[in-house]
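ping. complex inputs:
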Amino acid sequence: MARHGIGQPLRRVEDARFLTGQGRYVADIDLPGQAHAVVVYSPYPHALIRSIDCAAARAAPGVLCVLTGADALAAGLGGMPPLFMPHGPAGPHGYRTLRPILVADRVRCIGDRVALVVARTLDEARDAAERVAVDYEPLPAIVDLEASVAPQAEPIWPECPGNVAFELRHGDPAATAAAFAGAAHVVRLRLRNNRLTAAPIEPRAALARHDASSDQYTLYCTSQNPHGVRTMMCDSVFHMAQSSLRVIAPDVGGGFGLKSNPHPEDALVLWAARVCGCPVKWVGTRSEAFAADNHARDQVVWGELALAEDGRILALRADALGSVGAYVFSAVVAPIEFSIGLIPGFYQVGTVDLRTRAVFTHSSTLSSYRGAGRPEANYLMERLLDQAAHEMGIDRVQLRLRNAIPVGALPYRTATGMVYDSGDFAGIIKACLSAADWDGFSEREQASRSRGYLRGRAVAGYIEQGGRFNERMELRFDPSGGLVIVSGTHSHGQGHATTYAQMVGDWLGIAPERIGFIQGDTDQVAFGRGTFAARSSLLAGNALRMAADAIIERARPLAARLLETATADLEFVDGAFVVAGTDRAMALTEVARAFYRPLGLPAEFGIGLEAQGNWSADPPNYPNGCHVCEVEIDPATGAVRIDRYTVVDDVGTVINPLICAGQVHGGLGQGLGQALLEDIVHDPESGQLLSGSFADYAMPRADDLSSFDVRFLGTPCHTNPLGIKGVGEAGAVASPPALINAIIDALRGQGVDHIDMPASAARVWRALQNAAAEHIGAGSHT
Amino acid sequence: MTTITVNGKAVTVTATPDTPVLWVLRDELGMTGTKFGCGMALCGACTVHLNGEPVRSCSLPVSAAAGHKITTIEAMSVTPVGSAVQASWLALDVPQCGYCQSGQIMSASALLAKNRTPSDGDIDQAMAGNICRCGTYNQIRAAIKDAAASMSGRG
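pong. complex structure:
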């Protein structure tokens, strides 16, 4: 078993279908008699809807129905509330919005859903959608965070003057002020975390069927969390029992947080299927995705670090504005919370005073996207550290090593209330520097210089939180003795069918390729919460362990009976119950078959062999690590090339190193994409989206990303029996500061000490030109 | 009515002449292995071969494909290059969500059909039109080299 077991680079069992065009994504599914839906989206960031005239659209060829917000209200359909609000000492607080599935009166963002048109063919639906005449009265829009909280700003929601949906705080303002007053040095930065979109290559899609005879609904959707979709649809929108709706999330083409929660289109196709009496399919276009999908990040933060003469961090202060867009939607509270809660990182910070305000703007809703607040937090701390090292003349590495929480201080409670259980933070920095040949930099720097290029490097540590909520997993033997994993999580690239089978195969002594896997169907999986927040390894892993142990314990008495021995005399070894000290044994699969015998099975054994396991992310885990980035910059164009990139991660126990490396590669791609390329930009005057296609929104491509050197140096997590820490978010957390600090390092000699993300060639070039102009200007005065 | 050759078979389709090949494949012929990503030839998810050249089927009108040979992901396992690429993709655990991989394999196969010893630069150039949001570029590069090696080993 060991060659397939935990820690082995088992090849993914999922892959064959993806390599032959046999993957089955929502858009690939057609139901007999289906009609096609097109959504009419608001082209204005802010406007009153004076009227909607649907007559021409309804009369258009092939049209089955046209639905508006007024129809939704008349049908008694509810809106979509946020999944959760912040919980302060006095309970949930903040201004909670209810997002209508179709807006009837006032649109508050580009991409607000205004009408749904359903027709026999997609072309007919598109043509008819153009005939929906919405009479808008455009109004001034606020798309900028700071403008939204300015004193004279118009309230985006009348009941929420000031445009702050909620505010979160950590720390002790008085103690922090005192520490700052006594500090030898204070370093300050104002940083912008650029607005991003997840942009999975599979656009969101939804296909619904309603069976009038049973009043049962089925929804195929692009979801990371089908049970979550079911809850939102049934509890909030349709007010019906959750057993009335079957949600199926088949192969899903990338989620990255975007697909962890439903969007209004999921509700619209369900409703339309009922109204039209036929299945209704909606597949988003790329333009619609850019405009109407949840966006992410979009933060402005003012940060300050107080340091002692020797570089010890005394105190940390930060005040942030984080965008929620037009509604508090999905899981937006999570990134806003992490964006301050994780700022201290794995450094000893005496006292903190941290605040973030969640700000409404007239823009698409924001929610979690790979990292979900962790990258924002890490970016501030690591930028502050490099700035402090520069201003104080302390070596960057030494500054980090001096402040890293020592192993002996673990478990360590941060000033923001997180308890780090395990890790060797100084050790992982040193390991990464060594892997990256940090000391060989000067030779490479000279080589770059001789070719007319600037070279820079940076080191960035990170720690983040993996796992959220609880999870439920099932192991089920069928009557032939075949084992199936029934998963509450949802794999859409993470390779769960492989890694879960590796673990269970290890514990139950069954070859992984003989273990089946079921996920993504609320009729087949009793309950689950899906996959997001680097949660599946911890929660599903440990829940499976519980289930596997329960299977052995349930099977043992029947095995004893079949082997005619006492339960206490049985050992479970390599998939079989063995009578201790004898060669008499029975395979678990054979015992499982016996559980289905029609006769002769005492009632106390029940029928069938199955077990449920569950685990909770209380406590969660804290993956951590270190990144070293080396860049080469062409000063003539400002183009940045990532020349070397090294990662050493502590993800605790590695279940499958190939899959872990893939997860880190993906996180790096998205983190480096944020730092170098990606930017959702709105025109500040009109509020119009300026980066609404892959021609305007630069995605990382094969030629943008160098080869990564990714290594694992795990310290098993102490708070779960498997020693697991998450891996999904890790790469995206430390890569933005690693890259930006490396760019600044390369440019410092030219007088540049700050660059914003994304560090596009144009932006770097301009920074170089401005610095040169300042230098000349300063020179002319001397 | 347009007659095109798909994976070696002549088929007559009823789509209007300006219909992109992508939708002819998916909607009329029921071949869903080729994926929609952007509709503007900017992401590569819809890549097919036209007479062996990688093209973006979302932007290729079916009229322009008349009389030419279209090859899709569904036929790649029967071509020597395609099967080598698929084997290397499996060996190096390339896919994550899988959605863009049809297009990646089509681009990689077209590269290897012409160039059995691609450099990193050749690979970047051939593959830069195919976006993978899961970030499998490292593994793709390694798998292309692995496939090249396995084909040269085969002689």
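The helical segments of chain B are 21-28, 62-65, 80-91, 101-114, 120-127, 137-154.
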